[in-house]
Amino acid sequence: MSSRDNILNKIKAAQPDPTELPSAPQNPIRYDDPVGKFSEMINLNGGVAELANNWQDIRVRLDTTFNEFSNRATTIPFLADWADFSLNVEDPHELELINVAVIEGAFGVAENGAIWVSEKHVSHRVLPFITQYLGIVIRRNEIVNTMHEAMERVNISESGWGCFIAGPSKTADIEQSLVIGAHGARGLSVYLLNDH
Amino acid sequence: MYKAETDHARASEAFNSDESYVNWHDETLWFVRQKRDKAAFQIPEWEVLRDTASRIKHYVLSHMHELLVEFEKKALANGVQVHWAADASEHNRIVGEIIQKHKVTRMVKSKSMLTEECHLNEYLTGLGIEVVDTDLGERIVQLREEPPSHIVLPAIHLKKKDIGDLFHKHLGTEAGATDPQYLTEAARQHLREKFVTRRVALTGVNFAVAETGGFMVCTNEGNADMGAHLADVHIACMGFEKLIPQAEHLGVFLRLLARSATGQPITTYSSYFQSPRPGQEMHIVIVDNGRSTQLGRPDFRNSLKCIRCGACMNTCPVYRRSGGHSYHNAVAGPIGSILAPNLDMTKNADLPFASTLCGSCSNVCPVKIDIHDQLYKWRQVLAKGGYVPATKTMGIKTMAAVLSQPRFYQWSGKLGRTVMRALPGVTNNSLNPWYKQREMPDPPKESFRDWYIRNRGGK
Ligand code: SF4
C-alpha cells in the first residue's frame, strides 16, 4: 500500500466522532472611523499612511519621498511615466535592481493594517518583496473592519497567489530589538486615495 | 528502566549557569506575553474567537480523512504536486529526490518546525546539498550549529554580543559590533545573495485550506516570499494537522496567530499560495510522523490543534527559566512536552515533568488546548509504562494520594511548611532537581487557607 493510503487509513481509524463546524463569530468589532484605524495600524506596523486626494497628489508625494531614487517601477498606468524601470522582464531575478515599486492594493483591513495584494496587482509575485521600498495605493472606500470581512473578499481562485501585506519587512531576532528592513521592503508607504 | 538520554532538569543546568542570561530570557519572554495580553484586549470578541478556533480545529480532527482527500484533489487541480510521507525519513527522502531531480546542490529554506522535527538539514547535507536557513533567527542558530530554542523566536537564548561575534566570524562584520540594525543589515546582504542565486526554496505551511487546495505562509521578514517567488521549484512541507476546512477560517486564525505570538495585530506578510507561477514547479509534502497515532489518543489528540504561536512558551515559568534547548525536542515548552512523548516515550519521558502545572499555558492558548491537563495525563501514562525514574514515580504517587484527599492535603501542607522551616535542606537538596540553581523561598508561616479562615471567620 502506498504511504498515502496507509496514512489516510490510519487517520480514518483514529479520528474522533464527527463534530459540527462552528459559525463565524457574531458581531465582530466595527470601527467608527475605519480609515483612521487602518492608518493607525499601518503606522504601528512600521509603515507610513498618508491621505491623498487624487492621483496627481500621489504623484507629487512620490516625487518628494523618492526623488533621489532611480530604478523606480510601477504597475499603475497613471504613474507609468514616473517609473524608469520596465517590469517587462522574463526573469524575476532582474527585479533585484528595483529601488522603489508602487502598486495598487485591492483593499485594507482596519483592525491590523493588512492590505490584500494579489497577482492581479503585480506583474511578478516577488515584486513587493524584492524592491527596496514599496508604495501601495488603496482607495479609502475599500477599508473593511476585520479579517472576517477581508476573507469574504478574497477569491484565491481568481489569481494563483495573493498576500496580506501589513508593513515593511521587519525582525526582532537580535535581542528582541525591532529592526525594519529584514529581507523584504525596507519601507512601506501607503497612499489612501479619495476616489471621488 | 529510565533511559532518557537527556533530562530536562539536568539539561537546563547549562542554561542556568549564567544568571544574567536567565533573567534576561525570563523578563523578555514575559514582556512578549504582556504584549500578547494587550493585543488580545483590543478585540472584544477575543474569547469567542479562541472558542471558535478550537471548535474549527476539532471539526478538522474529526474530519481529517475527508478534508485531506479534498485538499489533495484541489491542490492537484491547481497544478501542485502532492506527496505523502509516513515518517521523517520518507519526508527527507521525498525532498531530497525533488532537489536531486533538478540537479541542484544549493537551496534556501524558510522557517519550518516540521523540517527541524525531521532533521532535514542534516539529511540534505549528507546528500551534498547546502541548505541556507533564511529566517534571521534560524540563520543565527544554523551558523552556531545548534537548533532553534523557540518556535517563533529561534535565537531568543542569545544576546547581541553572541550574535556580533558570530557574524564577525562568518559574515565579516566589524569585531565587537553589536548594533542590531547593523547586524541585521549584514544578514540582509548576505541572504539576498542566496535568494537571487538559489533555484529551490522550501517553506513551511501555517494553514492549508481544504476548500481551495491553497496554503498560507506567515512571516515578518518576507523570507518565505523572497525564496519561493524567485525559485524554480517551491517545496512546502506540512504536518497533516495544518489543515483548515475553508478559506473564511483563515480570518479566524489570522486574527489569533500573531496577536498570540508576539502581540502584533498580524504578521507583516500572510502569503496565500494557490498554484505555481508560470514555469514554476510547486510541491506539497504532507507528513504523518506519529500524528495519526496522536490523533488516536483521546487524551492527547487536542495537541494537534496547535498553530505554533509560541504563547504557551512565553508564559511558562519553567520554559522562561530553563531555555528551549533543555527540552531536547524540535518543539520546546509546554506544547513540545505533550508532542514529544508521542514521538518517543523513552527519550522524552522527562518532558511532561518540566512543568508546574500552573495552567498559564492553557489560559493563553489561542486554540484552547488543555495543555496542562495533558501534561498531567502524560505523567500518569509514562509512570504506568515504566518510563519514569523511581524518584519521580514516588512524587506522583504521593501527589495523587495527597490531592485525592482534601483533609490530608491541609495536614500535609502544614507539615511541609514545618519541615521546610526547620530543615530547608530536605527540599533544597540535590535529590530534587527543581531546586538546582534556585533559592527556595522562605515558606509562609500559614497557608492561604489558614489565613483565609482566620480573616474571614471560616465563612
Ligand atoms: S499549544 Fe497553543 S499556545 Fe502553545 S504554541 Fe500551540 S497554539 Fe500556541
Summarize the structure.
The complex is a heterodimer of chains A (196) and B (459). In chain A, 23% of the residues lie in helices and 23% in strands.
Helix amount of chain A, in percent?
Answer: 10-25%
Global outline of chain A: globular
Helicity of chain B, as a percent range: 40-55%
What series of H and E elements makes up the topology of chain A?
HHEHEEEEHEEHEEEE
Architecture per CATH nomenclature, i.e. the level-2 architecture of chain A? 3-Layer(aba) Sandwich
Q: Please list the strands of the largest sheet of chain A in the order they lie side by side.
A: 1-11-6-3-2
Count the domains of chain B: 3
What is the CATH H-level superfamily of the largest domain in chain B?
NagB/RpiA/CoA transferase-like
* Main sheet summary of chain A: 5 strands, parallel
Q: Beta-strand level of the residues of chain B, as a percent range?
A: 5-15%
Large-scale geometry of chain B: globular
Question: What would you note in describing this structure?
Answer:
Chain A has helices at 3-14, 34-44, 55-66, 127-130, 147-153, and strands at 48-52, 72-74, 100-104, 107-109, 115-118, 133-139, 143-144, 161-165, 170-171, 179-180, 187-193. By secondary structure, chain A is of the alpha/beta class. In chain A, the strands form three sheets. Chain A has a five-stranded parallel β-sheet, sandwiched between helices. In chain A, strand 9 (170-171) and strand 10 form a beta hairpin. Chain A starts with a helix and ends with a strand. The mean pLDDT of chain A is 95. Helix content of chain B is 52%, strand content 10%. Chain B folds into three domains: 8-39 and 310-394, no CATH class; 73-150 and 199-292, Rossmann fold (3-Layer(aba) Sandwich), CATH 3.40.50.10420; 405-456, no CATH class. Chain B is α/β, with parallel strands linked by helices and 459 residues long. The model of chain B is unreliable at 405-429 (pLDDT under 50). Chain B is globular. In chain B, a hairpin with a 5-residue loop joins strand 5 and strand 6. The chains are: A alpha/beta (196), B alpha/beta (459). Strand 8 of chain A pairs antiparallel with strand 9 (269-273) of chain B, so a sheet runs across the interface. The structure holds iron/sulfur cluster. Iron/sulfur cluster binds at residues 260, 306-312, 335, 364-367, 369, 371 of chain B. Residues 260, 306-312, 335, 364-367, 369, 371 of chain B line the site of iron/sulfur cluster.
